[in-house]
Specification:
By secondary structure, this protein is mostly helical. The chain has 2 domains: 3-184 and 297-326, HUPs (Rossmann fold, 3-Layer(aba) Sandwich); 197-291, Tyrosyl-Transfer RNA Synthetase. Helices cover 55% and strands 7% of the residues. It has helices at 16-32, 51-67, 84-94, 99-103, 106-114, 121-124, 126-135, 149-165, 211-219, 236-248, 251-263, 268-295, 297-326; strands at residues 3-8, 34-39, 76-79, 141-143, 175-177. The strands form 2 sheets. The chain has a 3-stranded parallel β-sheet, sandwiched between helices. Strands 4-5 form a two-stranded parallel ribbon. The longest helix is centred in the last third of the chain and has 30 residues, at 297-326. The radius of gyration is 22 Å and the shape is elongated. The protein starts with a strand and ends in a 6-residue tail after the last helix. It binds adenosine-5'-diphosphate (ADP) and tryptophan (TRP). Tryptophan (TRP) is lined by residues 5-7, 9, 40, 43, 130, 133-134, 142, 144, 148, 151.
């Protein structure tokens, strides 16, 4: 059984891409491994959210993950700021992270460009905090996408440097993990590539939408002018909708429309209506459960409490050992 750590940024509402690209991996991993999944609320302070936004976002993300089946009994689902050991270890780890290497990080360079007026020290040391998130639980595996590979490389650098500095082999090297299967990339509805909250409301299928609006959005999804004859290749927009259908519909339904497309007899209206039916069928129960958790603060609190306890047990043990390695000795 491996130890797994993954951080979830509390930004906005989850969409179908987040579900199939991230949350579904969590559901699989919690069955097999010792998992620590956390809501990265300390990280999110780099963007200066208001206290109300910060809290609402954490509340939303926690409710969504519980609703989607992340089980607080099977994993540690916790809020980063509930584990003070993380902040303490972050202080220590900052001492052996060098300014030069932090400045060279791609994510920092991106932020310098995108938020010119808020280039704070937290952005610079983001990779240190992320390394601590991972190392504090001695993770072997970190399920992250390509954009996070450099952070993981830096995590290994900090771990090795700590070991070298204190002549120990205390921290092992964590590895990136793709979830065990093929990486799923869920396309959006507007043929602009992957579904992403940054590509706008018309592109994404989120879990809190009213059925009517959701159906309308799918009926309006980008396709093309219609079939021109048998054996024609699919346009990008049409292929995207087929890809989404593969995720939410029965294989026989997908096969039926594949044949019609091949024959050039497919009617996009019928195809989209079927897709809308199946998306609604998929989204509705999750939407209902999100509503339940958002209202039921005691269920939410119970889950966060269990997660906090598990994460603190693990993090405090690491912190105690690190303090001894560093040479903090008590005089009393
Ligand atoms: P967004 O692109 O909407 O801003 P995030 O970057 O917050 O989403 O992604 C959170 C998690 O969801 C990451 O693990 C990311 O790889 C995954 N994810 C996001 N969009 C997709 C998608 N369209 N297909 C597959 N996985 C995705
Ligand atoms: N940096 C990650 C992201 O932007 C979130 C994150 C923070 C994380 N700490 C982590 C992911 C630790 C994995 C492990 O998506």
């Amino acid at each position: 059984m491996a130890r797994v750590v993954s951080g979830i940024r509390p930004t906005g509402k989850l969409h179908l891409g987040n579900y199939f690209g991230a949350v579904k991996n969590f559901l699989n991993m919690q069955e097999e491994h010792e998992c620590f999944f956390f809501i990265a609320d300390i990280h999110s302070l780099t963007t200066h959210p208001t206290p109300a936004d910060l809290h609402n976002n954490v509340h939303q993300v926690l409710a969504e993950h519980l609703a989607m089946g992340v089980d607080p009994e099977k994993c540690a689902l916790f809020v980063q700021s509930d584990v003070p050991a993380i902040s303490e270890l972050y202080t220590y780890m900052n001492m052996n992270a060098y300014i030069g290497e932090l400045e060279r990080s791609t994510s920092f360079k991106d932020k310098i460009r995108s938020q010119k007026n808020n280039i704070n020290a937290g952005l610079l040391t983001y990779p240190v905090l992320m390394a601590v998130d991972i190392l504090v639980h001695h993770a072997d595996m970190v399920p992250v996408g390509k954009d996070q590979q450099q952070h993981l490389e830096m995590t290994r650098t900090f771990a090795n440097r700590f070991n070298h500095m204190y002549a120990t082999d205390y921290f092992a090297e964590p590895q990136a993990f793709s979830g065990g299967g093929d990486l799923v990339k869920v396309p959006g509805l507007t043929a602009q590539g992957k579904m992403s909250k940054s590509s706008g409301d018309a592109d994404t299928i989120t879990f809190d939408e009213e059925e009517k609006g959701l159906r309308k959005k799918i009926m309006r999804a980008v396709t093309d002018n219609g079939p021109t004859g048998p054996g024609q290749p699919k346009s990008e927009g049409l292929q995207n909708l087929f890809d989404i259908m593969t995720l939410v519909s029965d294989t026989s339904t997908v096969a039926h429309f594949e044949v019609e497309q091949q024959n050039g007899t497919i009617r996009y209206g019928d195809f989209k209506k079927q897709l809308a039916d199946d998306v609604v069928k998929f989204v509705s129960p999750i939407k209902e459960r999100i509503g339940y958790y958002k209202q039921n603060t005691s269920a939410l609190a119970k889950a966060a409490k269990i997660g906090q306890e598990k994460a603190n047990d693990s993090a405090q043990k690491t912190l105690k050992e690190v303090r001894e390695i560093i040479g903090f000795k008590k005089f009393y």
